Structures are given as structure tokens and as C-alpha cells.
Amino acid sequence: MKATAAESLVRLVVDDAQLEGNLSLPQDPTGLVLFAHGSGSSRHSPRNRYVAQALHEDTLGTLLIDLLTAAEEREDVRTARLRFDISLLAGRVVGASDWLARNPATEHLLVGYFGASTGAAAALAAAADRPDDVRAVVSRGGRPDLAIPVLHRVKAPTLLIVGGEDKPVIEMNREALKHLNVEKRLEIIPGATHLFEEPGALEEVARLARTWFQEQLKPYTER
Questions:
Q1: Residue 19 sits in a domain of what CATH number?
Q2: What is the per-residue pLDDT for 38?
Q3: Looking at the whole model, is its pTM more than 0.85?
Q4: What is the mean pLDDT of the chain?
Q5: What is the pLDDT of residue 39?
Q6: Is residue 117 part of a domain?
Q7: Which residues, other chains included, contact 66 with Cβ-Cβ below 8 Å and sequence gap of 6+?
Q8: Is it the case that residue 89 has pLDDT exceeding 70?
Q9: CA-CA distance, 142 to 29, in Å (whole number)?
Q10: Which residue, among 14, 166, 45, 13, has the nearest Cα to 115 in the 3D structure?
């Protein structure tokens, strides 16, 4: 039987910005993954929700959170500026992590990050800022190159997933990989483009992410 997760809307304040997210917790969760969206996406992204559902089936909780307020999202639609403000986005990810650490339902859970597009850079920058609190990072079609100045401070094992037809992003990920001094891997999914819309591509993303988090979010005593 597939595990189900109880989903609730949460609101948290980070640096005077009120953010909304969807917190989903299976019964007796074994860890939690915070999703960092980017490039105009949101917590309603069908691709990220698909991956989140796969994690729920492995009894992992998820927090899909909008890193921009409604007003900021409207500005970003016009300017596409805030989605590239990695410092701002990373600060929001850190704030959400701190909220998870204070929340009685999640404070005991080991945490990983899943980042997409520019959200991957935000996730890695946040992991660099909280090196002892983040246990794993997965990037889907991400821009980890935008976080190169801080990648040497990341301690979390990191998996980069890129579509085989997403040629420029493959090179950006290869360059970022050189700057990570942790357990790391680059997985290229043959035939997949940036949004992984090809048959089976998103399923492979979910499988890879699930396996990575399953291993890295285990307590050290269970390894």
C-alpha cells in the first residue's frame, strides 16, 4: 500500500515577508525535504508535486513553499529579476528551515533540500549557510553555477539531475560540480529536455531523488 501524507497550508514570516507553503507529513515520517522553486515556478508546480508524492511514498515529509510573496511574484512576472536574486531566495530557504526546526511536528526530522532551476542555487547557498543542518541536496534542471562562490562551504551530499538535451545547463552543472567538495553526482537523463516532459523522464527524476534522500536522510546509526 502506498503511503499517504496529510497536507496542510502553512504561513511563516521570514524577514518581514509572509510566505505560504504546503506541508505534507506521512504517518511517522523518516525525514523531510524542503522544495525551493525558481524561475517563475511556485509550490503548485506539477513537476515538483509529482516528485513530492514519490517522496511521500517513501515516508518522507515535504514542504513546498513559495519563496516570493504575491506582490513579489507580480513584480517578477514583469521583470524576471527576483528569481535570480539568489541571496534573497537563499535567505528565505534558511528562514523556512529555521521554522521547521521550531515546529513541533517537524523539529525532530532530518532535512534535505530539493531545488529546481534557480531554486537549486538558492538551496545550495542555504545549505552553505546551514552546513550542519542540511543533510542532502538534489537539483532538478538547476543552476548550481549561480552559487559557485559558496559551493565550497556545502557539506550536504549533492545530486545534480539534468536532461540530456539541456546542453547549456549540463555544462553549467559540470562546472558547479568541480566546486563541490562533498559526496556528489551528476545524473544526465538521456533524451530529456529542461522541463523533463518526455515520457518517463520525470519518473526517473523522482526515482533518483527518492533514492538519494532515502540514503542520506537516514540517521547515522542506521547506515
A1: 3.40.50.1820
A2: 67
A3: yes
A4: 92
A5: 57
A6: yes
A7: 19, 20, 21, 37, 42, 43, 73
A8: yes
A9: 27
A10: 45
- Count how many domains the chain has: 1
The answer, yes or no, to whether residue 221 has pLDDT greater than 50, is no
Residue 223 within a domain: no
118 pLDDT band, cuts 50/70/90, is: very high
Q: Cα separation of 68 and 82, whole Å?
A: 8
Domain residues for the domain of 129 are 5-218
In a domain, 63, yes or no: yes
What's the CA gap between 210 and 205, in Å, rounded?
Answer: 8
